[in-house]
Design goal:
The chain has 256 residues and is mainly alpha-helical. The protein contains twelve helices and four strands; from the N terminus they run αββαααββαααααααα. GO terms for molecular function: ATP binding; protein serine/threonine kinase activity.
């Protein structure tokens, strides 16, 4: 039950208008806003309760918990998060920009399904100036590691043991594209979702790279994206399939 910092009357009115918009958001990967309380000096937002903590907790705290977030789960959580952001950006009645996407704002339910949270107040609250400089520069650290071809030095050891190196590199390249300074050089979240779902499919069915014209392959990817978007996606099967096959990841040769 987060609260919003003290604000002027005009900001309170803006807050109320945005709460109305946010209360209409209905997506399986977005924490549901149940209501708000304006009877106190500081307004409160009331969200559905998600039982399994944050992605940050599972990755950075107890080692025994981290083991449950396997590479397969992390790739799925990334795709689910991208799906939620794509919905907020384009499918919601009014576009909503999160502005504070981080592992601490991604909740996990009992089945480790991602639930994006704190997407409303981020439009009203300034950037946390108390955040350590090192944390704010994490993106630059990642970009520098990519530039110097040191990606594998910064990857979680557990992921090095579970994931194929070529898959790790593909995800890293996609993440780097998302960090481009110019907006028109960054992929949309719908494109990010599509590419992540394509990578998930390749992870599950490595043979898709070798079957360019397989009807079965196209159906598998179509079903994967329909599961992510429902009936809202406007992408054609051929567009999705072409983008997926462009990954062209080398067949697994037994090493990680």
């Amino acid at each position: 039950m987060p609260r919003v910092a003290d604000q002027s009357q005009s900001q309170i009115e803006q807050f109320i208008n945005e709460v109305i918009i946010l209360s209409q958001v209905n997506h399986r990967n977005v924490v549901k806003l149940l209501g708000c309380c304006l009877e106190t000096k500081v307004p409160f937002l009331v969200y559905e309760f998600i039982t399994n903590g944050t992605l940050y907790d599972h990755i950075h705290t107890a080692c025994q918990r981290a083991s449950s977030i396997t590479w397969e789960n992390r790739l799925r959580i990334a795709a689910e998060t991208a799906t939620a952001l794509s919905y907020l950006h384009s499918a919601a009645s009014t576009p909503i920009i999160h502005r504070d996407v981080k592992t601490a704002n991604i909740l996990l339910d009992v089945n480790y399904v991602a639930k994006v949270s704190d997407f409303g107040s981020s439009r009203l609250i300034a950037i946390d100036e108390t955040q350590p400089e090192a944390e704010r520069n994490l993106a630059m650290y990642f970009i520098l590691a990519m530039k110097e071809d040191r990606l594998l030095e910064i990857v979680d050891e557990q992921m090095m043991n579970e994931a194929r190196v070529d898959m790790l590199k593909q995800v890293a390249i996609l993440a780097k594209r998302c960090l481009e300074v110019k907006g028109d050089e960054r992929p949309s979240m719908k494109e990010v979702t599509m590419e992540l779902e394509g990578l998930r499919m390749i992870e599950k069915h490595p043979w898709v790279n070798d079957i360019k014209d397989s009807e079965e392959t196209q159906h598998l990817l179509r079903d994967q994206l329909l599961d992510a978007y429902g009936d809202e996606t406007s992408m054609s099967n051929s567009t999705v399939y072409d983008r997926m096959t462009n990954h062209h990841i080398s067949p697994f040769n037994g090493g990680r």
